[in-house]
Amino acid sequence: MNLLTKFNLILVVLFGTGLFLVSRFAKDFLVQNARQQVVQQAELMLRGAQSTRSYTVEELKPLLDKLPEQQDFVRQTVPAYAATETFNRLRKENPEYSYKEATLNPTNPRDRAVEWEADVVNYFRNNPGKTELIGERDTPTGRSLYLAHPMAAKKACLVCHSVPDAAPALMIRTYGPNNGFGWGENEIVAAQIVSVPMSLPVGIADKAYRHLLVYLIAVFVVTLVAVDLLLVFIVIRPVRQLAATADRLSKGDMDAPQLRVKGNDEISALTRSFNRMDVSLRKALSLIQED
After folding, report:
1. 3-state helix, strand, coil in the chain (%, to 5)
2. Residue 1 domain-assigned (yes or no)
3. Which of 79, 137, 263, 272 is most buried, most CB within 10 Å of its CB?
4. Are residues 44 and 153 in the same domain?
5. Domain ends where: 138, 164, 198?
6. Contact, 153 vs 121, CB < 8 A?
7. HSE-up of 8 (CA within 13 Å, CB side)?
C-alpha cells in the first residue's frame, strides 16, 4: 500500500467519523429549527385571522348596518365566520395548515371544540396569564403540531351570545336557541388553533439534512482531490525521485544527475542532504578507484 493510499484511507476514516458525529447532532438541530419555522408561520396565520376579525368588527359590520333594509343578522359579518372563511381560502396554497376557532359553546356547530381542543380552551381558562400554547398530539394520520391563542368574549359579543331573547331573530332561525349563549364578558370561551402535521417540519428538516450531507461530501471530495494533488507534487514526486536516484546509485550508476532543489521545506532539506551524500559517495569511490 503506497503513501497516497494510506493517506486517503486515513482521511476517509476521519471524515466518516466527523460526518457521523455531525449527522447525530445536525438532524435534531434541523428538526427543531424547521419546527420553529412552522410555528412562526402558524403565528403569522393567527395574526392574519385576528386582523380579519378586527376588520370585520370595526369596518365591515358597521358599514352593513347602515344599509337600508339590512337584515338583523348576516353571518359574513360574524368575526369567526369571516376569519375561518378567509383561512380556508389561504389553505388552497397551504393545505397542510388548518384553522379553527374551537369554542366550548358555539353558535355554529362547525366551531364546536372536540375533546383535545376543549382541553386547550380549558388550559387557558385555568391559566388566565397564558396567551399562547404550543403542543403536539397524535392523530390517525400521524403526529401533529398546533399553536393556540385564547379568545375572550368581549362586550360586543354579548349582543348575540348573552341570552336567546337578545340575539338577532335571523340568527335564532339559522342556528336555533340552544347553542352559543350564556357567555360572560372577558370569559375565555374559545381558542384560535392552527394545526399542521409534524411531517411538514420533519420533511423540511430531512430536505435540509440531505442537502447538508451532499454539500459536506462534495466539499470533502474536492478537498481530498486538492490535498492529493498537493501531496503528489510536494511530497510523493520528490520522494520518488530520491528513491529512484538512490536505487541507481546503489547499483553503481555514478552518472545519475543531482536532484534539483526548490524551496526551503523539509523535502528540500532532505534533497540537499541527499545531494551532499551523493557528492561524498562519488569522491569516496574516486579515491578508491585511484588507489
Report:
1. 65, 10, 25
2. no
3. 79
4. yes
5. 198
6. no
7. 15
